Every structure is written in C-alpha cells, then in structure tokens.
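ARCHIVE RECORD
Type: protein–small molecule complex
Small molecule: magnesium ion
Source of inputs: curated submission
Record status: active
Notes field left blank by submitter.
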Amino acid sequence: MMKVKAAAFDLDGTIYLGDTLMEGVMEVLGYLKEINVEPFYFTNNSSKTREDIFNKLTGLGIRTELKKVYNSAYAAGLYLKKNAYMEVYCMGSAGLKKEIENAGVKCVSEGSSGAGAVVVGLDSAFDYKKLAAGINMLKNGCSLIICNRDRTFPVENGRILPGCGPIAAALENACGRKADVTVGKPDTFMLEILCSDWGYEKSDIVVVGDTYDSDILMAQKFGSPSVFIGELPEDAGKTEAIREIKGLIGLLK
Ligand SMILES: [Mg+2]
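STRUCTURE (tokenized, with ligand):
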C-alpha cells in the first residue's frame, strides 16, 4: 500500500471560502497530525505574498509555518531567480511585485529595455491601460510568464470572482501568442519546490483540491496521488467531502 508523508492542500474552496474556514477542516488537520502526515498549503493565489497567506491561515486558527505555505507569487519569484531573470515587467498586484523583489529580481516600469519577461498575476485593478503596457513590453521581445490559468475562484455566498486566467488570456489574445511558462497549478513547479525543500518523493505527497483542471491535473502530471473534493453542493456536500478526504488519506497511509 502507498504511504504518504505530506498533504498539499488547495486553499480557495478546499480550506476556506473567502474569509470563512470550511467545515471539517480542523477535524481533517487533527487527523493528519494523528497519522503523522504533514499538511502544506498550496494556492494559485498570485495577488498576495506567501506571508499574507500564512497570516490568513493563522487568523483562521490553522497552526502552520511560513515555509509550509506555497503560492504562485512566491513560485514566480523563485522561477525567475532560478532562470536568471534580472529584471521583469510585473503585471500583477503589489503582492506579486513584492515576491519577485524578495527573490532579488527587479520589477521595472513600462518601456524599460532591460526587462526579460512580462509576469502576469491576478490583479483586481487590471484595466485597458495595463493590458496596453503588457502587450507593448511583449512586442519588444520579453517572454511571457503567467502565474496560472485559473478562470475563477470561489468566495462566500456561492459567488465566484475572475482569476488570473482571463487576464493572461487577454494578453495572449492581443499578442497572438501563448505564454511561455506557467508557474502555478496545474504545472508542477510548486510541487518540485516542495520536494526539493523538504526531501519528499512524488509518491510521498497527496494533493487535495476542489478544481480538477488545476489541483488534480498538477498531481497527475507530477505523478502524485490526489483527492478531489470538487463540485459538490455548497452546504452539506462540502462537509461530506471533507470527511471523504479523511477516509481517503487514511487509506493512502
Ligand atoms: Mg480551489
């Protein structure tokens, strides 16, 4: 039987909805502690820093460490550093810019000739002017690096909000080219970082998430087991789904 040592939890729609912790989460985390499976937090959220997300989890009562939280903004910074990008044009929020600069990569302004890439993340203030700036940087030969292609993400009261995907798609559409790199899910870069940071093998990690095209596909591409809890009714269904995870991780263990 396969034995897992770690669980990589998606956040939006798996651990919380907006600012509300989902039912059953504390129970599952307590169970993982009992069976000695280490939880990690894995989100495509690119608008916040790793530290912002750690603070949100802590505020919701989840006891973890900063180094166990991975988001696509943090991953973007690491990717740029690993691939020797010195200067980039950032099309995203202040959180993404901060993570890129934390990695030692400079975010330059539009028109700067030193930028090697345009990096796209979720930006709730995205507009026509920003799109125009992005396509002009790409026209000058930058590579296009996107945080993810998530179409939407769920918040409270059954609402959804547009994700990074539609912003990346607007840029791709205007330029007539596809992104060169995706640093977030379903690409496997975040799992690669997790394995190298903690010394895990692919089969040591179970990915738990509510989005098939993102969470589950990442696990499959990487060769890790996964648990899908998606597309169930908002209220009772999710609780059942969380109970289901408990059973499934127990089985994997
Ligand atoms: Mg999700």
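CURATOR ANNOTATION: Residues 236-252 form the longest helix (17 residues).
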